[in-house]
Design a protein that fits this description.
Component of the exocyst complex involved in the docking of exocytic vesicles with fusion sites on the plasma membrane. Belongs to the EXO84 family. It holds the Pfam family Exo84_C. The protein has 726 residues and is α+β, with helices and mostly antiparallel strands. The chain has 21 helices and 11 strands. The strands form 2 sheets. Strands 1, 2, 3, 4, 5, 6, 7, 8 and 9 form a 9-stranded mixed beta sheet that branches. It has a two-stranded antiparallel ribbon with strand order 10-11. β8 and β9 form a beta hairpin. α3 packs antiparallel against α5, α8 packs antiparallel against α9 and α16 packs parallel to α19. The radius of gyration is 48 Å and the shape is flat. The N terminus and C terminus are likely disordered.
Length: 726
């Protein structure tokens, strides 16, 4: 009874949710009003959840059922399509057989048939007639296990009919007919083996076209039909003869960078046929494309004048005797290592034995160095050049930034050295530097920005300049004795890498508005690391100066404005009173600070107890100005000379003008005397210290500072006078 009520409640709930006018918000509102408590809502929620799971299961079941029906329908369509292909093939063969019978033989055939019938009647037997010419037609595809060359009729029609037959026998290869002039050369059954463990994988059928190789797999349930598996252009296909190693025999390998496949023929004869016809077809394709390129590149000249030999009016007596052709010197190419050279190169490339491949090429070039180039040698060189192209592509891939960048610059030495031996020095240099640029960029990006700025800059400089130093040393090893243009390329690359470093450096130091002292320490660290490159003869200091000059100018200007604003603010609150430091410790600390600023005679400005006979404004100005000068000198290089000098003059003028204004306006004799004492400290102590420290840091005196001090020198006047001249 309860189960029946539950089922009826579930069906009622389903009908309610499936109704067209169902609104979720209204339903929940009504449910909340009608429920007695939380328990009813939980039960209702469980019923809805169970209904949702049931609906999901039904949906999955329906999808699966429809999917099975779709698969069965697709299979039936495939069977019907195959039968239609077979029917079309039979009709095509019958039509071509009928068209191949010469019309001139029809009367003779009729007469022969009549004679045969008459003789048969005379013998009283009425025996069987002649053999039906159509019954003698043999199918194009061999029986399973065999191999055959193209046996179709000659001409383009036969070749197209052969390709049509291929289209009917192999599923999924309709796109083969898109290439004009394509035809089948050879085909046969093969067994594919796994390259690593030599385990049998599957039975396949190979179709060799005049420009590609098609591999198709057998369809066990449909005899004589195949499914398309792979298509390999002959340009990038290498054939390697696999030596017999019982029970593994009659095998050959196809190399298609970056993969390879191993196939086994039925016997040694079929294997030999496969190897021969593959090489012949590749050679014919290469020769055909070479001729097409020559014809396309050759200019169309005026028609040639007929030769003397074709002139019928030329006297035979006047013809010059033909010069016998000089027989070209023959080159011995019968040696075993030369015969197997293309296959050995393929094996070396497949096994990543780059050194062995280049050694074989050097050996061949040394052997053919002083020898002529008859057609066999040209043919051999064409084969070898194709392998050189493949080897170069593999080496280029080894140096691409997409490969792993671990191992440092030494990991690229193998590929770079072999490219240089192949005569690709410029390409090797370009790829090596591109690889190292990607490595440096990745290393900088992987640095975590944590802690103080100075700590990050230490890590950044260590990572970048260490990578740069290792790259320079590896470059010197790899490209020693090569063209000097490679070294120019390295210098250009180093400048580009330095720009990458400065971008990361400036973003962390200058864009984040760090203090001038922090910026000065960071620049100092970068300069010290940059000077380490001098050990290998690489000086990039001028580059880092040129790249940082704008950022440093901006930092100096910004800090100068901060000092000027602070000085003006103190000047506005100036009361011209002596400083009282309250404790001897504070006075001792101030003495040490002024001594570190270069003011050695500060003792004469201290009074009894903890008093200082100077204004707080002048003392603060002295400490701030000397601090700015010290930090700016850490950032100094010749391009910043005028920027630093003008900033100092602007800062000093603020204090000088304030003292001058106070002397002119103050009427109290005691305060005026105190102002004179501060002015004397400023002109006779602070400004000379600034001049001296600037000259020590820069290496030459600053005439602008001297002129400023001389122009601002106080002219002694009567202390009782209320006027002063500055």
């Amino acid at each position: 009874m309860v189960m029946a009520m539950s089922d009826s409640g579930a069906s009622r709930l389903r009908r309610q949710l499936e109704s067209g006018g169902f609104e979720a918000r209204l339903y929940v509102k009504q449910l909340s009003q009608q429920s007695d408590g939380d328990r009813d809502l939980q039960e209702h929620r469980q019923r809805i959840q169970a209904l949702a799971e049931e609906t999901a299961q039904n949906l999955k079941r329906n999808v699966y059922q429809n999917y099975r029906q779709f698969i069965e329908t697709a299979r039936e369509i495939s069977y019907l399509e195959s039968e239609m292909y077979q029917l079309s093939h039979l009709l095509t063969e019958q039509k071509s057989s009928l068209e191949s019978i010469p019309l001139t033989l029809l009367p003779a055939a009729a007469a022969a048939a009549g004679a045969a019938a008459a003789s048969g009647g005379e013998e009283g037997g009425g025996g069987a007639g002649g053999r039906d010419p159509l019954r003698g037609q043999t199918g194009f595809f061999p029986t399973p296990g065999g191999a055959s060359r193209d046996s179709s009729g000659p001409g383009e029609e036969g070749k197209q009919r052969t390709l049509t037959t291929l289209l009917e026998k192999v599923e999924g290869c309709r796109h083969l007919l898109e290439t004009p002039g394509q035809y089948l050369v050879y085909n046969g059954d093969l067994v594919e083996y796994e390259a690593d463990h030599m385990a049998q994988l599957q039975r396949v059928h190979g179709f060799l076209m005049n420009d590609c190789l098609l591999v198709a797999t057998w369809l066990p349930q449909r005899r004589g039909m195949y499914r398309y598996n792979a298509l390999y252009p002959l340009d990038g296909l290498a054939v390697v003869n696999v030596k017999d190693n019982p029970p593994m025999k009659d095998m050959f390998k196809l190399l298609m960078f970056p993969e390879s496949r191993i196939f086994q023929a039925e016997n040694a004869k079929i294997k030999r046929e496969w190897l021969e016809v593959l090489e012949e077809t590749k050679r014919a394709l290469s020769e055909k494309r070479r001729r097409e390129q020559e014809e396309a590149a050759a200019p169309r000249g005026p028609p040639q004048v007929a030769s003397k030999a074709s002139n019928p009016f030329e006297d035979e007596e006047e013809e010059e005797p033909a010069v016998p052709e000089v027989e070209e010197e023959r080159v011995d190419l019968s040696m075993e290592w030369i015969q197997e050279l293309p296959e050995d190169l393929d094996v070396c490339i497949a096994q990543r034995d780059f050194e062995g491949a280049v050694d074989l090429l050097d050996k061949l070039n040394h052997y053919l160095e002083d020898k002529p180039s008859p057609p066999p040698v040209k043919e051999l060189r064409a084969k070898v050049d194709e392998r050189v192209r493949q080897l170069t592509e593999v080496l280029v891939f080894e140096l691409s930034p997409d490969r792993s960048l671990r191992g440092g610059p030494k990991a690229t030495r193998r590929a770079v050295s072999q490219l240089i031996r192949l005569g690709q020095c410029t390409k090797a240099c370009e790829l090596f530097l591109r690889n190292r640029a990607a490595a440096v960029h990745t290393a900088i990006r992987q640095l975590r920005i944590e802690g103080a700025t100075l700590l990050y800059i230490h890590k950044l400089c260590h990572v970048f300049f260490t990578s740069l130093l290792e790259t320079a040393r590896e470059f010197e090893i790899d490209f020693a004795g090569t063209d000097s243009g490679c070294y120019s390329a390295f210098v250009v690359w180093a400048r580009s890498a330095m720009g990458m470093f400065v971008d990361a450096f400036s973003k962390q130091v200058f864009d984040s508005k760090e203090s001038l002292s922090t910026a000065a320490e960071c620049v100092k660290v970068a300069k010290e690391h940059c000077q380490q490159l001098g050990d290998i003869g690489l000086d990039l200091t001028f580059i880092i100066h040129a790249l940082l000059v704008k950022d440093i100018q901006g930092a100096l200007h910004s800090y100068k404005e901060i000092i000027i604003e602070a000085t003006k603010h103190r000047n506005s609150e100036e009361m011209w009173r002596r400083m009282n430091l309250m404790t001897p410790e504070a006075l001792g600390k101030l003495k040490e600070e002024m001594k570190s600023c270069g003011v050695s005679n500060f003792e004469q400005y201290t009074g009894d107890d903890c008093w200082v006979n100077l204004s707080y404004t002048v003392v603060a100005f002295t400490k701030q100005t000397m601090g700015f000068l010290e930090e700016a000198l850490k950032l100094y290089f010749p391009e910043l000379h005028m920027v630093l000098l003008e900033s100092l003059v602007e800062i000093i003028l603020v204090a000088v003008q304030h003292v001058d204004y106070s002397l002119r306006c103050e009427q109290d004799p005691e305060k005026k005397a105190f102002i004179r004492q501060n002015a004397s400290f400023l002109y006779e102590t602070v400004l000379p210290v600034v001049e001296k420290r600037f000259e020590e840091g820069v290496g030459k005196p600053a005439k602008q500072l001297q002129d400023l001090r001389n122009a601002s020198r106080l002219i002694r006047v009567n202390p009782e006078s209320t006027t002063s001249v500055v």
